[in-house]
Structure formats: C-alpha cells, structure tokens
Records
---
Amino acid sequence: MSEPTGPVTYSRRWSFRRHKPIEPMSAQQAAARDAAGEFYTVALRDPSGAAAPDAVIEIAWGNNHVGVWFFDEYGRQPLRYSFRRSNDHLFLHGITQWDYPDESAATLSGATRVDKFQFGEDGVAQRLNSNDATRETTKEDRSGVNVSTHWESFPRFGEWASLARWKRGTSVS
C-alpha cells in the first residue's frame, strides 16, 4: 500500500459501502466544523482514480477522537487506527486489522480474521483475535509495551499526511 496522496474531499460522513461522501462540504465548512469540535470526514484519494480513497479520516474533536480507515486495491478496509486526544497530542490507542480470504471485492463482513489491539498510555495492551476459519477467539493481555511511537502531534486543519500514514513504528505482535 502506498501513502495517501492527491485531492481531499470533506463531508459530514463517508459511505464505506459506496465509497462516496455523504453531504459533501467545502474546506471552509469543514474547517468551521473542526473549530467547533463537530464530526466530519476527510477522504484522501489516490490520483489514479481508484474506486476507494486511500484513507478516510473521521474527525470528532468534541469527543477527542480521530479514526483513520485505510483501503486496499479492492476497496476493502484492512486497517483502522483510532487516536485519542491527550493534551496537545494524539495517542494511537487502537489498531484493527482485517484479513480477507481472496482478492475479490468484499466488505468488512467478508474478513476471515480480525485482530484488535488496544493500547494504554501506561504500556498496558490487549490483543483480541477472531478467526472464522478456526472458529476461535483468543485474548492476550500485556504490560510494559513500548508505546513511545504511538504519539502523534495534534494536526492543524488540513495537515492530514501524518495521520494518514499506513506504516507506523508501532509494535502489535
């Protein structure tokens, strides 16, 4: 997967099924929502014209939350980062990864394995793995996890590149 580039689309919400903005808005309208702490989305599209954007960022400053969804070449969501605002920074507290059985277009419900990671600022972490093929769910708790790379500078409006980094220095295995 490449890092997101290209045009930016703002909207009240994003339709993950149709890969389209719901109630599109101008950058000025989105900036006003940003300043007011209201929910809005940012879609970063690859200039190749792919059906799905490279990433969709869900901004909810009023809830101290940012969610970043990434897409593969088939329009599926294989990765989501969840950030929580902590003072003047963001902390990556959740990572969800979906694995799909083949290369056909599918939705999140087509995933055969889901890994969810939750991180605390104190280095306490939890991994929850659901595997449809084996019909098993496992849970693992850890302490002493190095979360120093989970911190992100709080972005000013329009500075989306750092949030939309697919590859991060996080340790999740």
Note: The radius of gyration is 16 Å.
---
Amino acid sequence: MAQGCLKCLKLTMCAANFLCFMCGVAVLAFGVYMMVNFRMAALTPNLASFNSANILLISGIVITCVSFLGFLGALKENRCLLLTFFLLLFFLMLVELTVACLLLVYEGEIAKLVTDDLTKGLEKAKAKPVNSTNVMSEWDLVQTKLDCCGVNNVTDWGDKVPKSCCANDCETPRPLYRPKGCLVTLRALFEENFLTTGISVIVLCVVEVLGMCFAMTLFCHISRSGLGYKL
C-alpha cells in the first residue's frame, strides 16, 4: 500500500513539474521575443529594467529551474533535490507575498515614480530629431494600442505631436487627437485587472503550497522506506 502511494505521488509530481517546466519554457521564449522586438527604455528610462520583457524572462528562468528540480527529485527519488525544491518554493512564496504587500503599502509612491519616469521618457522623445524613429516608435506603439496620447494629454508633446496621437487623418487642417493620456489609461487598465491579478497570486500560492506538501510527503515516504539518496 505504501509503495503504491509512493509511486502515485511520484508520478503526480513528475507530471505536474513537467507541465510547469513546459510553461516556463514558453514564458521564457515569449520574454526573449518581447525583449528583442519591444524595447521600453524610451518610455521609462529609469524603470526600463522592470519592463514586462525582463519580468517574463526572469519568471521563465525561475519556473524552468524550480520545476526541473522537482521533476528530477521525484523521478530519481532524491531527498536532497526534493528538499531543495521545497525550500525554493517556500522562498518564492515569501517573495511573492512580500512584493504584494509592498505594492499595496507603497501604491502612491510607486504611482508617482511611474509618472515621473513616463514624463522623463516623453521629454527624451521630444528632444530627438523628428526623423529619429528609435524612441518615437515605442511611444507610437503604446499610444496606438492603448488609444492614448502623451502622459496626461496631447499638450505634453507641445509642437512635436506624433502621428500616433491622431484619432483620424493627421493631414487634415484640424486633426482629432486622442483625448486620454497614457497614464490615465494605464491606471484604468491596472484597476480593471487588479482582481484578476489578485486571484492569480492566490492561485499561484495555493499551487506552491500543494507542491511543498507533495515534496515533503514524498521526502518522508522515501526516508521511511529507506529509498533514495541519503542527505
């Protein structure tokens, strides 16, 4: 009976970690794609290292490494790898909860930091020559996709309003500009997805707790049966 439970638990952990590993590879590949094709340094010069591409890249690396440890530990019935997998999951859960608490506590300061950085990015874009597309293309992409213009409104651009700010043909005598600023649009987008983000964090923590329980249960089964490598 004990050996049957051990085998079932082992197969479950292997399957779950293999699935997580494949998801991690997909996230890593998407992060590399985002990093190559979408550079956000012109939007937020000081916060460029915290853009979505870098976050996806780091998340993909962490997921693949941790899930590989869990898969290998369960497959080889290695107590050392299982214990490492357990500790890493516990550490990741603490980091996620800490970041979530910091975002809630320092929400105002973070919003001000993002606003200042967007303003600096826009001033940097305005300082570039009109025919320079390296900086403007990033603002053009965001303004077109989010249907916004400038940080607060079109007046942020002064006399260098890009074509992406136009809601209609910019060649007309009186072009119609997008009314909303990108900061307001980004804030509304964050508020709309706040519940989804919170639920995702809770689900992720539950999955991590289940992973820790499975790893520790398998670790104890292996210890009692005298199988696996010794620590």
Note: Residues 18 and 77 are 15 Å apart (CA to CA).
---
Amino acid sequence: YDSVIMEQRLKRNIVFADHDLATDQVFGEMHVILCRNVLIYFDRALQARVIRLFSDSLDMGGYLCLGTKESLRFSGQEETFDVINTPLRIFRKRQFPH
C-alpha cells in the first residue's frame, strides 16, 4: 500500500500477489519467500502445510525468512533447508536434500 520505499531497479523484479496459505497451491518458482509473524497464528497442521508449500514453491538455493518466534520444527521439512541465520530465522533450500 505504498508504505515501503524500494529502489526501482529492485521493484521491477518483484511480484507482489495475494495468496491464501490455507487453501491455495504452489505459487511459482520463488527465489525468496518472506513470511514473518504469520505462522504463529496457525495450528501445527496448517504450519506444516504452509512450510511444505513454501518448500515446493522455492527454487533450489532459494531463501525462506520466517519470524523470530517461528521455526521449521514439526514441519517435516527440516532436512530440506540449511540454517543461514538462527536468530533471524533465515533458511536456504538445499541444492540436494539429504
């Protein structure tokens, strides 16, 4: 809603779109997914669904950024990601899952 200031060269390469995490399916081949302070409002089953959706939507080597109170625990996707920064909850999808 025009409340973020961003360099035009970056803005040209970003697509902002609405997506219902509870019902929609994979939403493209993403390089970065920022989902901060959303999962804390979901039960464990929905959290696991959303993390799986993010994993399926991210390119290999893509980044997932969660809120500081959120994690990949109990999602079944822990082995799919490397931890880049624990305090900031930044993860990178592995090139080749273990």
Note: Residues 29-93 form one domain.
---
Amino acid sequence: MLDETPDPCTEQRERAQPNAAELEEFQRVWTELINAALHARSRGGHGHRGAEEITLTQSLLMEAVRGMDHPSVGAVAHIVGVSSPSATRMIQQLERKGMVARRRSERDERSTVVTITAEGERVLAERRKYMEQKQKQVFDAIRPSLRPFVLDVLRDLRAAIDDN
C-alpha cells in the first residue's frame, strides 16, 4: 500500500510555483470575492440609522481612534492608510456629526488629539453588531465540514497579505 501522506517539501515547492492556470483562477476568484464584499458593503447600511451615517473608512478611522492612547490625526491617518489631509477631512465630517472631538494635545501643542464621543461609540457599536450579524450569515452559509478549512485559508490569506 502506498503512503499517501503528503511530503511537506514537495507541498511547499508546489505552493511556491503555481502554474499559470492556477494563478489565473486565483486572480479571478480573488477579484470576485473583493467585488462581492464591495457589493455587500454598498447594500450594507440600508434601513438602520447610525451605521449608515458613516463610511467604511470613517468607521475604520473611528476604530483606530478607539484603539489608541491620545491619538494624533497623523497617527490615525497612518494606521488607517490615508493621508493626513484626508484624515483631517474625515475627522471634521465626523466632528460635525458629533461622533468625534478634537483638541490640542497636552503633550505637544502642535498636535491635535482625537477622541470618540458617546454618539460615536453608539454608532460604532451599532455598526459592529450589524457586521457581526452579516458575518454570522456568511458563516452559517458555509458547510460545517468545511468551516475549519475555510478558517485555515483565511488565516493563510491574512498572513500572506501581511507579508506582502
């Protein structure tokens, strides 16, 4: 009887050199996945107050502010991956909506510190709850026998994206 245990070295070589058809299929499926996520996002906010009041980038910016200690506009821009002028515009929009507040830094008067307001916390919590419901729907749509494999693939994708 032949040993059907995959050889890790062979597996790594095969993984390192995908054939053209595999690469083309990966690129097609990747694009379809991204397009599906964008399409779902565009449908996402309809029908509930709060989370529809902010864009995805604004919510990422607010989540970054929540996760930092006395964040400056520049630091938040860096974390979110936008320019400082773009972050400033988003923060001004969010400030007008009452979701964030800005003030001069006590540590460095040249710097502006951003904080989340109670309204901002409410909107983020609502958005998080909505996203968790959507994630559960997607998770429930995956066959239970495939869920561990899907989780491994998602972890591998995350690591590959982080490495590049």
Note: Residues 46-50 have pLDDT under 50 and may be disordered.
